[in-house]
Sequence to fold (410 residues):
Amino acid sequence: MIMFTGTNLWSLGAKKGASSFYQTLRHYAENGYQVELVSCSRTEGLDIPGVSARHVNLDWLARMGQVRKIGFAFRLLVWFVFQIYVIAVGLRLTRLKQPVFLYAYEIAGVPATLLLGKLVGLPVVSRFQGTIMKPLMATPGWRFRYWDHWLALRARTELVIMANDGTEGDEVLKRLGAPDTAVRFWMNGVDINPVHCSDEDRASIRHSVGCGPDNLILLTVSRLVAWKRLDRIISAMPEIKRSVPEAKLVIVGDGDARPEYERLVQELGIGECVFFTGAALQADVAKYISVADVFVSLYDLSNVGNPLLEAMSLGKSVITLNNGGTGSMVSNDVNGVLLEPEALATLPEAVVKLLRDQARRACLGTAAKEHAQRTFWTWSQRMKQEILEVEQLCSGWNYREAEKSIGELH
Fold:
């Protein structure tokens, strides 16, 4: 298989940040596929036998895309350069490697991969980690403003895999005319090995985040970007601290918005009760979650991301917002605390109530873990289903026509 993507293998550096991309590569390789990865982004931490990577470095152009007034032109240029790179490298690789299918991971990789598939007669799979488009489709001129999303999400690939992360990507695809028979709307897998911590281990982890044995830990795990809305729990901390002096907020992750969040902490005068860990290795995230008393997720679009799923899998009480598809995962006062967006003013009160009631935290955490065991896939289960679907697609494909097309092109 040949995979094309403009997405970073790790969102926060080698083996740090979201792991769904890495898990995809790993499971295809472990199931006997030779994976050729073609990217315009870094691939640090790529240590998977059976996966080869090549990329074009467009970092400087991407940085120019952040400059106001001229950014749009540079983002468009990055997109065009990568499409050309995909076609050029893809034509050569299809001749040399004779793949059975092409795979476009996330929006930047889809248009050129679809065109390449038409040229060489190979099936194309597109894969999306969710989408920001559901609320944006109600805004004027959204097709122009988010042209790259529109082009990718409306592409008619043979198989479309959309993550069920609460952002309602299935509704977006339906509105854009994707045929139901081609769409697979699946949750990501969750691989959380039981975390067995001795008292010494637990004390060491708590010490590493600036907490003593008497502190109650509020924990959040995310990339620090604006729409993750860490400002909500930070702004609630002064009131929480007045009622529960031993409460501390631990923020696991890093990102462009970190300086802004750190300034907010200083402005509120709560530096002593907020701790930023920075980006954490994926292998260490479960350790941080294991010492949390309450897990908090207050994103704008949806909260059904892997951090929330991991916290539920580890039996933690969670506080989150009822937006996107979050309500399908968390039931208020059953397996978590689910706040309505218009009730955000009650966040400090809800947190304090939960911190003061250890029995309720234990009850909600147990129910969360039971829900996870009943309904969540492991990454092995999730990828087994995907590979089965891909192999069914390939089993019915006419590869004689593909060989003819490739031969004519070369």
Summary: The first strand starts at residue 2 and ends at 5. Residues 199-375 form a domain with the Rossmann fold fold (CATH 3.40.50.2000). The chain has two domains: 2-189+378-409, 199-375. The CA atoms of residues 335 and 364 lie 5 Å apart.
